[in-house]
Design a protein that fits this description.
67% of the residues lie in helices and 6% in strands. With 362 residues, the protein is mainly alpha-helical.
């Protein structure tokens, strides 16, 4: 066969022999590894057996175990007996406490019932006292001015605390408002005019032509007195132009209101230089901080030269009281006298008193 195959067959024979040798070597290695594992397992088994033998050797004998068990049972029996005794003592103590609580409850219930009875009787007495006071006031037709209240079982009538303010003393009757001369504006008319001017010129300065139109409109609407309805535009312009001395075409409507208000008190226009000087000194005296301005309260405390003097008002009131008539009666008599006597006739005392009161009212 080798001769027939030649070189190739020789090479193939060599390869097969090599493969067979390698396979034989692998089987030998596997056998060696298995033998090594068996040897290791045998050593571990021997070690485990030795440890078990040592543990068994360390255990006490059966006699010692029986002695220990007997001692533990004895101790547990004693502890159980002590626990039973302690539980019995606690039960007895609890029973005693429960009895005491029951007795205290009965005592508290008795005391509470007694207190409620006394409180009920006291509250009934307080209500009865309150009823008595109210019925007495109702029967007499009198108010109950003092503070009354029920506090606990007491009825308290606090005479130091008024529940109803005392009735104020009725003021003296005011004299009737005098009849204004034709063309003089009343206080409501001045207020309506001031509101219209304020709306037209909030800053205070109004064009002269606009002021004329507004005054004519107010006169036609009946806000101004009837005498103003006969004034035409030319006369109104001439009258209002006096409030524009610089011919600027504008006026301060506040000056117009002051002029119309002052017209109702003729004595304003007849002030002497001494009266004006005295008034300026009084205004300066009430100016606390001397800054040239006074407050509303300071203004109200000033007595003006055109106001009736307090002594004159007092004398007029005394005269009316002495005559046994009211200021309205006196003024009614004055009105009758004014129609009966000439305009330049002498003034009676009653007319003087009525004039003083009328000026004080104004």
């Amino acid at each position: 066969a080798a001769a027939v195959a030649g070189p190739a067959g020789a090479k193939g024979g060599k390869g097969g022999a090599a493969a067979a040798a390698a396979a034989a070597g692998g089987k030998a290695g596997s056998a060696n590894a298995a033998a090594s594992k068996l040897a290791a397992s045998s050593e571990e088994a021997q070690a485990a057996a030795a440890a078990a033998a040592a543990a068994v050797a360390a255990l006490p004998d059966s006699a010692a175990l029986a002695a220990v068990s007997a001692s533990l049972q004895t101790v547990l029996a004693q502890e159980l007996q002590l626990l039973q005794q302690r539980t019995a003592l606690l039960g007895n103590k609890a029973a005693v406490i429960v009895d005491e609580v029951v007795k205290l409850q009965a005592t508290a219930n008795s005391q509470l019932a007694e207190w409620q009875q006394k409180r009920y009787v006291a509250e009934c007495g307080a209500v009865a006292a309150f009823e008595k006071v109210v019925k007495a006031a109702a029967a007499a037709g009198q108010p109950l001015p003092y503070d009354m209240r029920l506090e606990d079982e007491f009825f308290i009538l606090d005479e130091n605390k008024l529940l109803i303010s005392p009735a104020p003393v009725a003021p003296a009757p005011r004299p009737p408002s005098p009849t204004l001369p034709p063309g003089i504006l009343s206080v409501p008319q001045l207020q309506q005019l001031a509101a219209a001017l304020q709306q037209a010129a909030p800053g205070g300065f109004l064009a002269l032509a606009d002021a004329v139109d507004l005054m004519l409109k107010m006169a036609s609407q009946g806000v101004l007195p009837n005498a103003w309805q006969d004034i035409d535009a030319s006369h109104m312009t001439a009258a209002l132009a006096s409030l524009d001395p610089t011919y600027s075409g504008y006026l301060d409507w506040r000056e117009l209101l002051l002029s119309l208000a002052a017209a109702s008190i003729p004595s304003i226009h007849t002030a002497t230089a001494a009266q004006v000087a005295a008034q300026a000194a009084e205004l300066a005296s009430v100016d606390a901080d001397k800054d040239g301005y006074i407050t509303q309260q300071e203004f109200e405390n000033v007595t003006w030269w055109f106001e009736p003097k307090p002594e004159a008002v007092h004398a007029a009131q005394e005269a009316v009281a002495a005559a046994g008539a009211t200021s309205a009666d006196v003024q009614g008599q004055v009105a009758a006298e004014g129609q009966a006597r000439p305009a330049d006739g002498p003034m009676s005392f009653n007319q003087w008193a009525a004039d003083v009161l009328r000026e004080e009212q104004r």
